[in-house]
Amino acid sequence: MIRNFFQHVLESLKSLRRNGWMTFSSITAVTVTLTLLGTFLVIILNTVKLAQDMENNVEVSVYVNYETDEEGKEELRNNLEEIPHVASIDYSSRDEELERVQNSYGDSWGLFDQDNPLLDVFIVSADEPQYVEAITEEAEGMTEYVQEASYGEDLSDRIFSIAQNTRTWGLIGSIILIIVAIFLISNTVRMTILTRKEEIQVMRLVGAKNGYIRWPFFLEGGWIGLLGSIIPIVLMHTGYNKAFELINPILERSNYSLLSPGTFNWQMSLLLAVIGVAIGSLGSAFSMRRFLKF
Fold first, then answer.
1. Which residue ranges does UniProt annotate as crossing the membrane (predicted)?
2. What pTM was estimated for this model as a whole?
C-alpha cells in the first residue's frame, strides 16, 4: 500500500510536468484566489481585533459629589467593588482631571486653576463589555455619593454595534469568498482533467481500478493547491510585516493594536496552505465524478 502511494505521488508529479500549461493556469488561479482570500481574511481579522479593543476600552465614569469626604469616597469605592463584573477601579481627583483636560485642550482651561469646576471620578472597568450598562445603572443608584455615572452611551453603543456588525459581516464575507474560491479552483482543475479524459478511459479499459485511477489526480490537485499557496504566503508575510510596522505605532497611541505578526503570520500561512491543498484535492475529486463512480 505504501509502495502504491509513493507511486501515485511520483505519477502526480510527472503529470504536473506533462501538462505544463494547464498546470500553470491552475496554479495561477489558485494563487490569485488565495491572495484575495488571504488579504480579505487579514483585513477582517484585524478589524475584529480593533473592534474588540474598542469594546474593552469602554469604561464607566462615576463622578463623586462635591461634598463627599475621604471616608465617603472610600465607602463608595468599596460599594463599587461589590458590583458584579467589575474588573478594576481607578481614582482620579478633580485636580488630576483638570490637568488632563488642560493637556488635551490647551491654556484655555487655565482660567479654572483657582476655581476647578470638575469632579473627582472613579473609572470603573468591566470584565466583559456587555456589563458596562448594568454597572452604570448600579453606580447611578448610589446617590449619596454619586453625582453622575456615564459610559458615553451614544458613542459606546455605536462602538458595540460596529463591533457586532464587523464580526457578523466578516464571517459572512469570509464564507462567501471561500465558496467562490472553491468554485473557481474546482473548475480550473476540472478543465485539467477534462483534457485527459482519454487517458482515464484507456486506464479503465486495461483494468485499472477506480481508486488507482483516482489517486494521482487527487494528489495532483493537492500539489496544485500547495504550489499556488506559496506566493500568497510570501506576499502576506512581507506585506503584513510592513503594514504592522507602519500602522501599529499609530494605533498604540490610542491603546489599540493589530494582531502580532509572529504567531499570526504562521497561522495564516498554514491556513492558506491547507485551504489550497483542500480545494485543489476536492476540485480534482469532484471533477473525477464525471468519469468514475466514487
1. 21-45, 169-194, 215-235, 266-286
2. 0.64
C-alpha cell of residue 108: 484655555
Domains of the chain by start residue, with CATH: 1-55+157-292 (no CATH), 59-151 (3.30.70.3040)
Grid coordinates given for 192:
485539467
Model confidence over 216-264: pLDDT tens digits?
777 777 888 888 889 999 999 899 999 998 888 887 766 678 888 888 8
How far is Cα 4 from Cα 6, in angstroms, rounded to an integer? 6
Beta bridge partner(s), residue 126? 86
Element (H, E) at 120: none
For the chain, helix, strand, coil in percent to 5 are 75, 10, 20
Distance (Å) of CA 24 to CA 169, 189, 192, 214, 239: 34, 11, 10, 21, 24
For residue 182, CA distances in Å to 123, 167, 173, 222, 286 come to 50, 23, 14, 13, 11
Closest residue by Cα to residue 278 from 215, 196, 186: 186
Amino acid at 48: V
State the burial class of residue 93 (Cβ atoms within 10 Å of its Cβ: 0-12, 13-18, 19+).
middle
Residue 167, amino acid: R
* CA distance linking residue 148 with residue 152, whole number of Å: 12
